[in-house]
Amino acid sequence: MSSGYSSLEEDSEDFFFTARTSFFRRAPQGKLRTGQQDVEKEKETHNYLSKEEIKEKVHKYNLAVTDKLKMTLNSNGIYTGFIKVQMELCKPSQTAGKPAPSSNSCMNTLHISSTNTVGEVIEALLKKFLVTESPTKFALYKRCHREDQVYACKLSDREHPLYLRLVAGPRTDTLSFVLREHEIGEWEAFSLPELQNFLRILDKEEDEQLQNLKERYAAYRHKLEEALSQAWKPG
């Protein structure tokens, strides 16, 4: 199964794209937790990585690569590499003469630099599909898989996707990126297994609230019955 290849030039406002895209079915996923604290920790680490630390991480990353999409470290400390982004555009988007992905999922591979931000990646993907809507209507999500847990969160426009890829390693079942429209409602930004997990949590909370409510009314009924029994006692 082939994947679309795109190149995002570091010092240019233009984006150049080649090859094709392919469509695939989403794999089942596990439980969901929010990963905002995890993201903040990665931001802090990114700010303090030395050139030697980056060199070591790039070396380890390339040793683990199985699809030849390796990273390249330049002498100035900037590195380039590839990220795969799953595009999930749930509704038809405004395009300039070219159909945009709708209900299907489209996987696209981008060649980017460590200096490229989330905002730039979003713009590059929209340009590839000639989507004329504002990039502010879209968001890039990071989804981390750890054992049976799925940590999902929306990335800020200032974050650097290639750094997140470097830290997580090349395996997409450990870290994946998803482009979605975030104007259509907060719940539509999540997959079916994630929504099912929310429902399980809500059911549990509902049962706890009902139990608490029953106990409160039982205690109130007991007090009323005691008061009634006292009132009917002969004086």
UniProtKB/TrEMBL annotation:
Location relative to the cell: Cytoplasm, Cytoskeleton
Ras-associating domain mapped to chain residues: 79-184
Keyword flag Acetylation: yes
Domain of life, per lineage: Eukaryota
GO cellular component: microtubule
Domain SARAH: 184-231
Major localization listed first in the record, in broad terms: cytoplasm
SMART domains xrefs: RA (SM00314)
PROSITE patterns: RA, SARAH
InterPro entries assigned to the protein according to its UniProt record, in alphabetical order: RA_dom, RASSF1-6, SARAH_dom, Ubiquitin-like_domsf
This protein's record includes keyword Cell membrane: no
Signal peptide: none
Ranges in a coiled coil: 203-230
Name recorded for this polypeptide: Ras association domain-containing protein 3
Organism listed in the record: Bos taurus (Bovine)
